[in-house]
Amino acid sequence: MNSWYHSQSAARKWGGEAHDYSKINDFIDSSKQVIGDVRHRAVYHHTLGVFLVEKVFGPTISVTKASGKVVQVPTRLIAERHIIEDLGWLPSPADYLKNTPVEKWMSGSQRKEVPLSTLLLNQPSEASA
Questions:
Q1: Is 67 in contact with 93 (CB distance < 8 Å)?
Q2: pLDDT at residue 31 tops 70
């Protein structure tokens, strides 16, 4: 589901307008910038992603209902709803990783040789310039 539709769904649930929820839903789907298929969900569509949303956006957002009443909506609930709408449940990062093969490079035992110029370590510092 597109993040805008998640925002509309949240507005129907808690009140306010879809744009009140769009920054959170856009954040959860921002991993589409890196990988354009459903694997992007491994980045934020899990329990750690929910906690990251709370850390980035705070514990609640203020939403004005049609009645004019301002309510506080927990950001974690918004994130959980998004993920459950997409996946049908709330996985943990371990659920994504459990069938991932362990590669040699993951342990740090396999080093790549990278020229220092690639790392920009041989650039003159401002003090010596």
A1: no
A2: yes
pTM beyond cutoff 0.90:
no
Asked if 51 and 76 touch (Cβ cutoff 8 Å), the reply is yes
Pairing of strands 60-64, 70-74: antiparallel
Q: Which helix (H) or strand (E) holds 47?
A: helix 47-57
DSSP, res 23: H
Residue 24's CB is within 10 A of a number of other CB atoms, namely 25
| Backbone region of residue 17 per phi and psi (left: phi > 0; alpha: psi in -120 to 50; beta: other values) | beta
Residue 90 near residue 83, CB atoms below 8 Å: yes
Angle at 91 between CA 37 and CA 76, to 5 degrees: 100
For residues 33 and 68, what is the distance between their CA atoms, to the nearest angstrom?
37
Average pLDDT of span 25-38: 96
